[in-house]
Amino acid sequence: MSDLEGFGFVMPHWFYWGWLAVMPLIMMAWDRWARARGAAPAEPEMTPGELQAEADDPLIYLKFEGNWFTRAIDWTSEMSGEIVSFWTINAVVFYFFEVIMRYLFNQPTVWVHEASFLLLGMQYVLAGGFALLHGAHVRVDVVYNLLPVRGRVGMDIFTSMFFFVFAFVLMTTSWTFFENSYSMNETTVETWGIEYWPVKGMMLLGSALLLLAGISKLIKDIVLFVRLGQERVA
């Protein structure tokens, strides 16, 4: 990084990737330690709007918790969302550092903006499984809300075929991007020139997590659809 010596402090590439790998683990360990000592903050209460949304959705009370296979996938999705959520702290710290350096010391950085948008992009692709687990993806529910409970579950099962086509294409495409990027040791075109293949590797990992979360949801939907049919017959 001798060509960047005139720019002041520049975060080394190895430190950036290493910090992103260990920082969530440190924060999670700290959180567990704080909870064990009884110092963890109380869980935020749900707003009246959130409570009403749950009350309006009968599927909330009929969810099938799944078997060992779906629980393992759900745990993985939950942990992936928790891990990448801690990365947001880094983006805040990075931009705070940039503001201080730019406006107080008149030494703008060459790495903060790139480090932050790569970080947020990786968060976006890695959080797909977590979002699917908690029903956070946007969907058009004009017709969906008019269906009975079993009809909604059946609609989820039917539309899952389109989801799996998308997830499979995303994963295979991400693998091609990652393989090509790694083979040529691709770097970004900005001055910082950090390795780009880890980002595309996160695309592959995120698409795999999304696919697994979809499999878990489909299994639970099928079981719930059958159970609702049996209750209807009985």
UniProtKB/TrEMBL annotation:
GO terms for cellular component: plasma membrane. GO terms for molecular function: transmembrane transporter activity. This is TRAP transporter small permease protein. It comes from Marinobacter antarcticus. It is found in: Cell inner membrane. Part of the tripartite ATP-independent periplasmic (TRAP) transport system. Belongs to the TRAP transporter small permease family. Keywords: Cell inner membrane, Cell membrane, Membrane, Transmembrane, Transmembrane helix, Transport. The complex comprises the extracytoplasmic solute receptor protein and the two transmembrane proteins.
